């Protein structure tokens, strides 16, 4: 099992490290620039060249069945779900084959509304409840993989 983290603007880096260490899973933090990360034998830092979707492409080309991807990027989540990986957002929301189509459609609708001036959106504050939900979901996904589900 490998865990891939879309690391730019990821608020759960420390939580992912804890899960990876507990289960001795290889952990890849993928970003467009160097970032400070905890010292851990399970971590591999991957710095990709600047450019649109370069980090996403790196992750999507490697994530397979038995892996976990941590991202809030809906198109990346869709690509990884299609490849068979388990995918979770930073707030603990899992993406699945059943949910990703509607999630992509809602993302596109919200983009259209923002672009036409019909709606303004604001990023919600990341809360302790979000972190707890994320840790619970990560643990469930790890257990699902370990038990072949």
Fold and architecture overview:
The protein is of the alpha/beta class. It has a single domain, classed as Rossmann fold (3-Layer(aba) Sandwich). Helix content is 44%, strand content 16%. The chain contains five helices and six strands. A six-stranded mixed β-sheet has the order 3-2-1-4-5-6, sandwiched between helices. α1 packs parallel to α5 and α3 runs antiparallel to α4. It is globular. The protein starts with a strand and ends with a helix. The relative contact order is 0.16.
Tags for this model:
5 helices, 149 residues, 16% strand, six-stranded mixed sheet, 6 strands, alpha/beta, Rossmann fold
At the first level of CATH, the class is Alpha Beta
Number of helices: 5
Count of domain modules: 1
Helix content: 40-55%
CATH fold-level assignment: Rossmann fold
Shape field = globular
Tell me the structural class.
Answer: alpha/beta
| Strand content bin | 15-25%
Distance between the termini: 13 Å
Report on the biggest sheet.
Answer: 6 strands, mixed
Question: Average pLDDT across residues?
Answer: 88
């Amino acid at each position: 099992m490998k865990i891939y983290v879309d690391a730019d603007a990821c608020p759960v880096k420390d939580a992912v490290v804890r899960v990876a260490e507990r289960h001795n899973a290889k952990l890849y933090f993928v970003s467009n620039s160097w970032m400070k990360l905890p010292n851990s034998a399970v971590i591999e830092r991957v710095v990709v060249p600047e450019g649109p979707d370069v980090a996403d492409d790196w992750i999507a080309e490697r994530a397979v069945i038995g892996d976990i991807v941590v991202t809030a990027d809906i198109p990346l989540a869709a690509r990884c779900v299609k490849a068979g990986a388990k995918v979770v957002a930073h707030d603990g929301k899992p993406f699945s084959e059943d949910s990703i189509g509607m999630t992509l459609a809602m993302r596109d609708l919200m983009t259209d509304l923002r672009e036409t001036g019909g709606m303004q959106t604001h990023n919600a504050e990341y809360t302790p409840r979000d972190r707890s939900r994320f840790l619970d979901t990560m643990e469930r996904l790890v257990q699902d993989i370990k038990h072949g589900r």
